[in-house]
Design goal:
The chain is mostly helical. It contains seven helices and no strands. It has a domain of about 120 residues. Helix 3 packs antiparallel against helix 4, helix 4 packs antiparallel against helix 5 and helix 5 runs antiparallel to helix 6.
Length: about 200
């Protein structure tokens, strides 16, 4: 009889402890869902990119630079409903950003433009990395969105500067001066050997 009572009480204790574990698990899941919902809302509200050209030069380059046009088009399409949609969008943005290095128009294939493109690519890839983590750091994602926007403006302004600089007419003799200043065309600085000096062997 004592054995039956002990088994009965141990079963009741086991049942109550399992019930408490289930309640804790349900409470934790609910808390986690609320946290994810807050992160999703924060990201959704801040996911605003400068997807239209801000300078005349960048607008004109849309016709000749397909990768630039594709990247801005991808920026314009905002994901909806789930964090998974934002994760897929960040992957697509990362691919389009990497393609910006391909077929840069000759006019813009200069170090200031290339460095800005590299910085933009780095920011977009960081966005892709952070948004695909198990625990998404929403503050970092929000900061990266604003940094990407700054890089977009910087790149477009640099394109505009280059376009304006190219409009300035070249003065007479300036092209020859530029050739003389080109260090890649310079004569190598090697010591001259006097052939009149007798050699000691």
């Amino acid at each position: 009889m004592k054995y039956n009572i002990a088994v009965f009480f141990s079963l009741i204790f086991l049942f109550l402890s399992c019930k408490n574990d289930n309640e804790k698990r349900i409470a934790e899941n609910k808390k986690e869902m609320q946290k994810r919902e807050v992160i999703f809302k924060n990201i959704e509200e801040s996911w605003i990119f400068y997807d239209t050209p801000v300078t005349e030069a960048s607008e004109k380059s849309l016709g000749s630079w397909n990768q630039w046009r594709d990247f801005l088009t991808e920026l314009a399409l905002k994901p909806k409903k789930t964090i998974g949609a934002f994760q897929q969008k960040s992957k697509a943005l990362s691919k389009k950003a990497m393609a910006l290095n391909d077929n840069i128009p000759y006019e813009y294939a200069k170090p200031p433009i290339k460095s800005r493109i590299s910085t933009l690519i780095t920011k977009v890839r960081l966005l892709d990395l952070f948004i695909n983590l198990d625990v998404i750091p929403d503050k970092k994602v929000i900061k990266l969105v604003s940094e990407i926007n700054l890089q977009l403006v910087s790149l477009q302004r640099q394109m505009d500067k280059i376009t304006e600089k190219n409009k300035i007419p070249i003065e007479e003799g300036e092209s020859e001066l530029m050739k003389m200043m080109d260090t890649t065309r310079a004569i190598p600085n090697t010591p001259l050997i006097d052939t009149n000096i007798s050699r000691v062997e």
